[in-house]
TrEMBL record:
Keywords: Cytoplasm, Initiation factor, Protein biosynthesis, RNA-binding. It comes from the Eukaryota. The gene is eIF3d. mRNA cap-binding component of the eukaryotic translation initiation factor 3 (eIF-3) complex, which is involved in protein synthesis of a specialized repertoire of mRNAs and, together with other initiation factors, stimulates binding of mRNA and methionyl-tRNAi to the 40S ribosome. The eIF-3 complex specifically targets and initiates translation of a subset of mRNAs involved in cell proliferation. In the eIF-3 complex, eif3d specifically recognizes and binds the 7-methylguanosine cap of a subset of mRNAs. It comes from Drosophila madeirensis (Fruit fly). One of its GO terms (molecular function) is translation initiation factor activity. Residues 554-565 have a biased composition (Polar residues). It is found in: Cytoplasm. Residues 293-307 are annotated as: RNA gate. Component of the eukaryotic translation initiation factor 3 (eIF-3) complex. The eIF-3 complex interacts with pix. Residues 536-550 have a biased composition (Acidic residues). This is Eukaryotic translation initiation factor 3 subunit D.
């Protein structure tokens, strides 16, 4: 028993450790001496452990997950290296950049000769191809290696061309008050379904019949585009005598089909445009400004590389718009039977923009004044247009909207060569036009749907020489049903009505006065301004016949200059 007690007495005694109590948080209150002057970096158990040091990795790796090994506490500078002394013994050994081989996909598809010349058994190339100084020598031609890579621009590389700053269609003045900004992502989501077809209120004008021989035109059987001297009226809403008469009895929103199409297809537009709106009581009148280029047709507006802004060039956006408008007017009149004066389709009323005493050649246009019920006691009245009429075998007339697409320079436009593809791959040509001129084709479709046209006739007109903008030929025609073509180009009429109704509701909430909606030239935004009542007033626009505008005056000047040798 005594041995057991002595053995237990030899063990050391146990002393309880001192436990510190931190009243301000958790953790030790004082830093032990053993851990002083030691760098500390917080670490979370959720952080990934990466490589301590990697001298072979490049900066291009893991672009998608660049912060994969980043700490959840952020980056600290406790372990940063600061170079204080200059290393005089350091020398840069190699300054040459590593030249990557150019992209080889699909470049030597047509180099198969007799016996497979141009390829070695391993699928490579023999001595016919060499690489030096960033150049690729192929069959005696030097091609820059960076130009052979897919998806790279010729001038700007991966970055693409710098964004072009466009000018607004009208200068915003200091006394204009901005009321609302509507961005395209919100407008695209709008929808106003179940809008019934418009009801005819009045019909005016005279139409000529379509000449079916133009349906047989192709690339091998082309036909020159003629210059037809006819007056085309582009009268705005408040200058239309029929709308002035109808506004007293029916409707509370008044516009033209061109104005409605511009608003309805606004989400596809890139260029700036503006529309003047006057609110008088519970009525709204939508007008275009006097001396404006509102009616000119845009060219390659939605293209990845739109035309350059060089007014001295015939391929500037403005000169191309004048040329496209000139082509469209002449084509829509040339494809009609103009010889027989009696074989014309006459509406109930004559053309409202000419008097009986005037003896002038007027373009074949039929006007339909229609109304739509948009809900909430909103009744829209608009003037719509037909360009021609077609006699069916049953004897019933089919009304047509005739438009023309024009080719100016396929190389500059990065497009498809019409003379090579139009007869064999017309779908590819149309798809390219839908990509480059999405807004223009959508507006034509909306105008045809609003007018109730049975057919939308599209003509393909090209320059005889890409450098000569005064002479053109017709290479072919194509026709569609407007509603089917709208579905084909992904144009939703429910969304178009929704955008229009949104703008009408905004203006209806405002006080009486004059307003202006304008598409921002460089952003996908539409702005609504409150402008003074005397803005854009002119003394010579009260004659009731309207003004053809500065844009159409340029078209007439273009036609006169084209007639000169």
């Amino acid at each position: 028993m005594s041995e057991t007690i002595n053995t237990a007495a030899q063990f050391p005694s146990f002393e309880k450790p001192t436990v510190q109590f931190n009243e301000r948080g958790w953790g030790p209150c004082e830093l032990p001496d053993t851990f002083k002057d030691v760098p500390y970096q917080p670490f979370s158990k959720n952080d990934r452990l990466g490589k301590i040091c990697d001298w072979t990795s490049t900066s291009n790796n893991d672009k998608k997950y660049q912060n994969k090994y980043a700490s959840s506490f952020g980056t600290g500078n406790q372990y940063s290296y600061y170079h204080e002394e200059d290393e005089t013994t350091f020398h840069l050994v190699d300054t040459a950049r590593v030249q990557k081989p150019p992209h080889q996909r699909g470049r030597f598809r047509n180099m198969r000769g007799r016996g497979g010349r141009g390829r070695n058994p391993r699928g490579g190339l023999n001595n016919h191809s060499h690489h030096h100084h960033g150049m690729t020598t192929l069959n005696g031609k030097n091609v820059k290696a960076r130009d052979t890579r897919r998806g790279m621009g010729k001038k700007f590389g991966h970055r693409g061309p710098p964004p072009k700053m466009r000018e607004s269609s009208v200068a915003v003045r200091a006394d204009w008050a901005s009321i609302e900004e509507m961005d395209f992502p919100r407008l695209i989501k709008l929808s106003l379904p179940n809008i019934k077809d418009g009801v005819d209120i009045a019909t005016c004008g005279t139409l000529e019949y379509y000449d079916k021989t133009y349906d047989r035109i192709n690339v091998k059987n082309e036909k020159p585009l003629q210059k037809i001297d006819r007056i085309v009226h582009t009268v705005t809403t408040t200058d239309d005598p029929v709308i002035r008469r109808l506004s007293k009895t029916v409707g509370n929103v008044f516009a033209t089909d061109a104005i409605l199409a511009t608003i309805m297809c606004s989400t596809r537009s890139n260029y700036s445009w503006d529309i003047v709106i006057e609110k008088v009581g519970d009525k709204i009148f939508m007008d275009k400004r006097d001396h404006t280029e509102f009616d000119l047709l845009t060219v390659n507006e939605s293209s990845v590389e739109p035309p350059t802004d060089d007014d001295s060039s015939c391929n500037s956006p403005r000169n191309l718009a004048i040329e496209a408008t000139f082509i469209n007017h002449n084509f829509s009149q040339q494809v009609l039977k103009t010889g027989d004066q009696e074989a014309k389709f006459k509406f109930e009323e004559p053309n409202p923009f000419i008097s009986e005493d005037e003896d002038i050649q007027v373009a074949s246009v039929g006007y339909r004044y229609k109304k739509w019920e948009l809900g909430s006691d909103i009744v829209l009245v608009a003037r719509c247009e037909h360009d021609g009429v077609l006699q069916t075998p049953s004897g019933e007339p089919q009304f047509m909207s005739i438009k023309a697409l024009n080719e100016w320079d396929s190389k500059l436009a990065n497009g498809v060569e019409w003379r090579q593809k139009l007869d064999t791959q017309r779908g590819a040509v149309l798809a390219n036009e839908l990509r480059n001129n999405a807004c223009k084709l959508a507006k034509w479709t909306v105008q045809a749907v609003l007018a109730g046209s049975d057919q939308l006739k599209l003509g393909y007109v090209s320059r005889i020489n890409p450098r000569d903008h005064s002479r053109h030929v017709i290479l072919g025609t194509q026709q569609f049903k407007p509603h089917e073509f709208a579905t084909q180009i992904n144009l939703s009429m429910d969304n178009a009505w929704g955008v229009l109704r949104c703008i009408i509701d905004l203006v209806m909430k405002q006080k009486d006065g004059k307003y202006l909606i304008m598409k921002d030239p460089n952003k996908p935004i539409i702005r609504l301004y409150d402008i003074p009542d005397n803005t854009f007033d002119s003394d010579d626009s009260d004659d009731g016949e309207g003004d053809d505008g500065e844009g159409f005056q340029q078209v007439y000047n273009y036609a006169n200059n084209s007639n000169k040798p």
